[in-house]
Design goal:
The chain has four domains: 7-211, Rossmann fold (3-Layer(aba) Sandwich), CATH 3.40.50.300; 222-377, Rossmann fold, CATH 3.40.50.300; 379-431, no CATH class; 451-559, 2-Layer Sandwich (Alpha-Beta Plaits), CATH 3.30.70. The protein contains 21 helices and 21 strands. The chain is elongated.
């Protein structure tokens, strides 16, 4: 059974399935805006939240709205969220999917420009409780009669000042005019310029106003760096960073409990004194592990966010974000574990291609540039190893206490007429137990090719043209294997159907409640495409996706390597 005894969130009056979802996400304590906003949202009050991105405002409105309306029949739209950009709208939709995962019948649709209309129209026709979209596309659907707001219970204006800056304020007003007078309104804005204040006065009824001062100003003593690294190369990158950084104690942040154990085991096998710390570990053992870090019996702690909150160990010199955090507030909590008591600290962030947007959010909210660092190569690692070897030798010679070995080696040399330099080298080989002292970089020709990316899209994509395929079907060129933790699927829609990566991402993210950042490599061929999805996809989700329409074609999705359907795909009806 799920442990939902979370005094922070439980005291706010959220529904049990929402608390269970928070528990599975390791969320324990509400942020200030969540603690103040959620009760008003649950009561149906109009609210104004003045808060920066990264303060947890999405959960402040998503959690209570899911608690209130997720159990409703997926017919009339209950909630409409307006966001200024497609990226933010998809991010909010992903959050609704995470927080509402315990409601099997909950439906969410993203109505964003630049995405295929067909999946959006079908979702609206089938019925959804939650609509998240950009103003222009929402108006399109309203004009066509596909989106009906007669029974709308709440409208959320997210980042209202950004919508004003982008010239959407007239569209926002047009949408507001289409909502019922009794509709609850929640307005969020980092600033309150006069047009936004005027908008609030026109459409909100006696709103509660909550202002949250961002706590994301990081400690100036913390040096922040990031490196781009593909997901599959993260374990090697972590070892390379640890090889070359001059650290005392380290916390490595991972997103899941299983990951903490896998990473800690991998580091132990590589010779590091590391331990995992997560919510599945008994409290007594967790306290013992922290004591070991404090005393120096272990040097590296691999932890999830929840168990590391409040952790204060002065010897922590480095925080490594192995998995990037979903919001800037969490990032700041993480790096705040270092740079304590007036000491300098280092924060290193691993960024994959799909994490670029989150890195930009962190920089914008913290108002600090995160410095890019190169992945340490073999030359750098060997240089550091040699330097540390000589430093250890210097330290031992300075300490003295060389007996009984000095007398024993003197006797050995006299008896065997041995070369002193060769004797010292033999002892070093014995010290390293025959392991190679120097490392070599993998030749570039042996490295996996870097995945091509389509500009303006967070999905890795490769479109392939074929010669000599006329009349003979497609000849498939060998491609790289899916990343660790991913499975490759074939879908029966391709370049000749006019499909784009964004169409595939939007359909899968909306139809299967998969976060777009968890959708991997997409390759588009003339007749079909392949897409990498997380391992262990529920059979129900795969069966559902088979029937999903994209660019006028049913996906008919099968695991790559399995026989593709032989029947000709249907054409979408107009």
């Amino acid at each position: 059974m799920s442990d939902v005894n979370q005094p922070g969130f439980k005291s706010l009056g959220l529904a049990l399935p929402v608390l269970e979802a928070l528990n599975s996400l390791n969320y324990e304590t509400p942020s200030p805006i969540q603690a103040q906003m959620i009760p008003y949202m649950l009561d149906g009050r109009d609210v104004i939240g003045q808060a920066q991105t990264g303060t947890g405002k999405t959960a402040a409105f998503a959690l209570p709205l899911i608690s209130r309306f997720a159990q409703e029949k997926a017919g009339a739209v209950q909630v409409l969220v307006l966001a200024p950009t497609r990226e933010l709208a998809l991010q909010v939709a992903e959050a609704f999917g995470r927080y509402g995962e315990k409601y099997p019948s909950m439906k969410t649709v993203s109505l964003c420009g630049g995405m295929d209309y067909r999946p959006q129209l079908r979702s609206l026709r089938d019925g959804v409780q939650f609509v998240i979209g950009t103003p222009g596309r929402v108006i399109d659907h309203l004009t066509k009669g596909a989106l009906k707001l007669d029974n709308l219970k709440c409208v959320v204006l997210d980042e209202a000042d950004e919508m004003l800056r982008m010239g959407f304020i007239e569209d926002v007003e047009a949408v507001m005019e289409a909502t019922p007078d009794t509709c609850q309104v929640a307005l969020f804005s980092a600033t309150m310029p006069t047009p936004i204040r005027r908008l609030a006065q026109k459409y909100l009824k006696s709103p509660e106003e909550i202002t949250i001062k961002s706590k994301t100003e990081t400690v100036s003593a913390i040096r922040q760096r990031y490196l781009f690294v593909p997901y599959r190369d993260k374990p090697d990158a972590l070892v390379r960073v640890l090889e070359t950084e001059n650290y005392d104690g380290v916390i490595v942040f991972a997103r899941t409990k299983d990951s903490t154990v896998e990473i800690a085991d991998s580091l132990q096998q590589a010779g590091y004194k590391a331990a995992a710390l997560n919510g599945d570990i008994a409290q007594a053992q967790r306290e013992q592990t922290v004591d070991q870090l404090k005393s120096g019996r272990i040097d590296i702690l691999v932890a999830t966010d929840v168990v590391a909150r409040g952790l204060d160990v002065p010897r922590i010199s480095h925080v490594i974000n192995y998995d990037i955090s979903f919001d800037a507030e969490t990032y700041v909590h993480r790096i705040g574990r270092t740079g304590r008591a007036g000491r300098e600290g280092d924060a290193i962030l691993f960024v994959t291609a799909k994490d670029k947007r989150l890195l930009q959010t962190i920089e914008r909210v913290t108002r600090q540039k995160v410095e890019e660092m190169p992945l340490p190569n073999a030359d750098k690692i060997n240089e550091v190893r040699e330097k540390r070897f000589m430093e250890r030798l210097d330290a031992q010679l300075e300490r003295g206490k060389l007996e009984p070995f000095a007398e024993l080696l003197q006797r050995y040399q006299a008896e065997r007429d041995a070369n002193p330099l060769e004797m010292a080298a033999a002892l070093a080989v014995m010290l390293y137990k025959g392991k190679p002292f120097h490392v070599k970089d993998t030749p570039r020709s042996e490295r996996p090719k870097r995945e091509p990316r389509e500009r303006g899209n967070d999905v890795r994509v490769e479109t392939r043209k074929r010669r000599g395929t006329e009349g003979g079907g497609e000849r498939r060129r060998p491609t790289s294997s899916p990343e660790q933790g991913m499975t490759r699927y074939r879908i029966q829609v391709g370049r000749k159907h006019g499909v784009k990566p964004s169409n595939i991402v939007g359909a899968i993210a909306n139809e299967a409640n998969i976060q777009s950042r968890n959708i991997g490599r997409i390759e588009i061929y003339p007749e079909y495409s392949t897409v990498d999805l997380p391992e262990g996809m529920p059979g129900k989700a795969v069966q559902h996706l088979k029937k999903v329409w994209v660019s006028g074609q049913q996906l008919n999705m099968t695991e790559d390597g399995a026989p593709a359907p032989t029947r000709k795909p249907k054409t979408a009806k107009s």
